[in-house]
């Protein structure tokens, strides 16, 4: 029987007095890649932030491997094996690539070693002694994801990792997602770049007005394309 890594039920969230999520319901099976689609402001990034406890107040239920996390602090949620890669990446500009990689705490023994990271991201090996400010946007994105993999997190929340990057880098990131999926990682991606996300995900959720409006599988994608293009404007 497939185990649910993450189960979100009737999730409500606020930033101050702004009610941003209105009863979000979805689950992610262990080893699955799930993509959240939707226009800007639909609530996709806020959903990832709410899972990590980074919004203001939140209500409902967020279970990680059956454990309720709605009342837990962010650091405690992360220690359950969740890695969050925010859109802004959060690279420490004064540290080298390797220093950035050595910074995160180890959450479990599943964390990737430096040599394993460098095998997956040869660009980072070449730039191991370069300061964060000297890395290209694509290299910074690789570093942001690689840093999570060092911790041993098994559920990865990836927010717009392909945004603003050259096609050759986007292709490398797609290969990375496929490789991580093959290694058994569970991944939730927020993506505006539908061409990047389409071949990678097992399931797709479409968000609007802070709630899930549609759900479909990779197999159902061909017959949904026309509606999706119209809905997302892609």
How is this fold's topology laid out?
Blueprint: E1 4-15, E2 18-29, E3 33-37, H1 44-51, E4 58-64, E5 67-68, H2 74-78, E6 82-85, H3 97-102, H4 114-120, H5 122-126, H6 137-151, E7 155-159, H7 167-182, E8 186-190, H8 194-197, E9 203-208, E10 211-217, H9 221-232
Parallel strand pairs: 3-8, 3-9, 6-7, 7-8
Antiparallel strand pairs: 1-2, 1-4, 4-5, 9-10
Provide a descriptive summary of the structure in words.
This protein has helices at residues 44-51, 74-78, 97-102, 114-120, 122-126, 137-151, 167-182, 194-197, 221-232; strands at residues 4-15, 18-29, 33-37, 58-64, 67-68, 82-85, 155-159, 186-190, 203-208, 211-217. The protein has 234 residues and is of the alpha/beta class. It folds into two domains: 1-81 and 154-161 and 176-234, Rossmann fold; 86-153, no CATH class. A six-stranded mixed beta sheet has the order 6-7-8-3-9-10, with helices on both faces. A hairpin with a 2-residue loop joins strand 9 and strand 10 (211-217). It is globular. The model has no long low-confidence stretch (mean pLDDT 90).
Task: Provide the CATH superfamily of the largest domain.
Answer: P-loop containing nucleotide triphosphate hydrolases
Structural classification: alpha/beta
- Reading off the top of the CATH hierarchy, the class of the largest domain is best stated as Alpha Beta
Q: Assign the CATH architecture of the largest domain.
A: 3-Layer(aba) Sandwich
Distance between the termini: 36 Å
- How helical, in percent, are the residues? 25-40%
Number of strands: 10
- Strand share of the residues? 25-35%
What is the strand arrangement across the widest sheet?
A: 6-7-8-3-9-10
Specify the overall morphology. Answer: globular
Unreliably modeled segments: none
Q: What's the number of domains?
A: 2
The radius of gyration is 17 Å
Average pLDDT figure: 90
Number of helices in the DSSP assignment: 9
CATH topology of the largest domain: Rossmann fold
Largest sheet: 6 strands, mixed
Task: Please provide the ordered H/E string of secondary-structure elements.
Answer: EEEHEEHEHHHHEHEHEEH
